[in-house]
Amino acid sequence: MPVPAAAVFFALADGIGWLLVARALQGLAVGAASGAFTAALLATEPTRNRHRASLAVTAMTAAGGGLGPILCGLFADYLPAPLTLIFWIETVLLIVSALVIRRTPATLGTTGRQWRPTWPAVPAHLKRSFAAASSVSLVAWAVTALFLALAPSYVEAFTGSRNILLAGFVAGLILVCSGISQLASQLVFSSLSAQKSQLIGLTLLAVGLIGLPIAAATHTAAIVLTGGVAYW
């Protein structure tokens, strides 16, 4: 179970080497498991509604990613053992999750055919649309990563506060809002085409991105938070 192992390495880390190993294990585990989790949810959705299952995966992934830094900030500021407690709790939860997963049918997702390695391929008539969608996703996550990297330090510099929960809240805000927005958009924008939805999303991303240099020039933390909400 590489993910619990990564959490243990984080808890025991006493130098940069441990952190690098833990981070590498975490990345390998997420890469190996995320596709399988998505496929399992698609296969077990009660009504076989693939669109709803896909929406749940993307929304919960974003919301979970946002809750992580918020909870870490809470633990670091207000609970004992700020550098280790959160990782030991994560280890326990991951072990429990692994035990729950073991109760799922062993045949879930099997096809009965022998696995053969193949190169990823996209049908010729879908290549243009696939390239466009991939590019939009790349830009969206690049902007998101930029915000996650800069926003906490901006707020700390502008407010003078070294409260870790505040930094975690700022970092998690964009992803929590993203998860909420993906669920809410099904009610508000369900009639829009994928193209129009992407155009609206890119416009809001641009607004949020423009907010960062404005916030830097004016030293206004509120603009950083507003930009984070606009990203969703």
Automatic annotation (TrEMBL):
<feature type="transmembrane region" description="Helical">
    <location>
        <begin position="82"/>
        <end position="101"/>
    </location>
</feature>
<protein>
    <submittedName>
        <fullName>MFS transporter</fullName>
    </submittedName>
</protein>
<keyword id="KW-1133">Transmembrane helix</keyword>
<keyword id="KW-1003">Cell membrane</keyword>
<feature type="transmembrane region" description="Helical">
    <location>
        <begin position="164"/>
        <end position="189"/>
    </location>
</feature>
<keyword id="KW-0813">Transport</keyword>
<dbReference type="InterPro" id="IPR020846">
    <property type="entry name" value="MFS_dom"/>
</dbReference>
<dbReference type="GO" id="GO:0005886">
    <property type="term" value="C:plasma membrane"/>
</dbReference>
<dbReference type="InterPro" id="IPR036259">
    <property type="entry name" value="MFS_trans_sf"/>
</dbReference>
<dbReference type="GO" id="GO:0022857">
    <property type="term" value="F:transmembrane transporter activity"/>
</dbReference>
<dbReference type="InterPro" id="IPR050171">
    <property type="entry name" value="MFS_Transporters"/>
</dbReference>
<keyword id="KW-0812">Transmembrane</keyword>
<keyword id="KW-0472">Membrane</keyword>
<feature type="domain" description="Major facilitator superfamily (MFS) profile">
    <location>
        <begin position="1"/>
        <end position="232"/>
    </location>
</feature>
<feature type="transmembrane region" description="Helical">
    <location>
        <begin position="25"/>
        <end position="43"/>
    </location>
</feature>
<dbReference type="Pfam" id="PF07690">
    <property type="entry name" value="MFS_1"/>
</dbReference>
<feature type="transmembrane region" description="Helical">
    <location>
        <begin position="55"/>
        <end position="76"/>
    </location>
</feature>
<dbReference type="InterPro" id="IPR011701">
    <property type="entry name" value="MFS"/>
</dbReference>
<feature type="transmembrane region" description="Helical">
    <location>
        <begin position="201"/>
        <end position="231"/>
    </location>
</feature>
<feature type="transmembrane region" description="Helical">
    <location>
        <begin position="130"/>
        <end position="152"/>
    </location>
</feature>
